[in-house]
Task: inverse folding
């Protein structure tokens, strides 16, 4: 991030500093019988939602309804976080762990 660029002011909302060992999929898709493409985790409450390329777009929906601004990708090899309010991507090295996720039901 450029020192003069926009800064995210929501880092204080982050409660999840250690990622879960494994998740079963998007919380909302699992409940509704939907399918997801990529998984994101809410860094305030640990809700697992699906990306905007998934039919349910549950990560964005959760950010809106719960007013939880920050997510991190749970995809293998991805460590970026995203703030929905500032629309900023960033890396947050304080967040540790690697989550085992099942293959996307849209790709199988
Ligand atoms: Zn922010
Ligand atoms: Zn979903
Ligand atoms: Zn949340």
Result:
């Amino acid at each position: 991030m450029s020192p003069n660029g926009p800064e995210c002011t929501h880092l204080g909302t982050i409660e999840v500093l250690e990622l879960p060992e494994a998740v079963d999929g998007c919380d909302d898709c699992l409940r509704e019988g939907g399918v997801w493409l990529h998984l994101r985790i809410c860094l305030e409450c640990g809700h697992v939602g699906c990306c905007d390329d998934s039919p349910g777009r549950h990560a964005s929906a959760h950010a809106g309804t719960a007013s939880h601004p920050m997510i991190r990708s749970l995809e293998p090899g991805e460590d970026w976080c995203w703030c929905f309010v500032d629309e900023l991507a960033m890396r947050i090295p304080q967040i540790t762990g690697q989550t085992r996720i099942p293959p996307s039901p849209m790709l199988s």
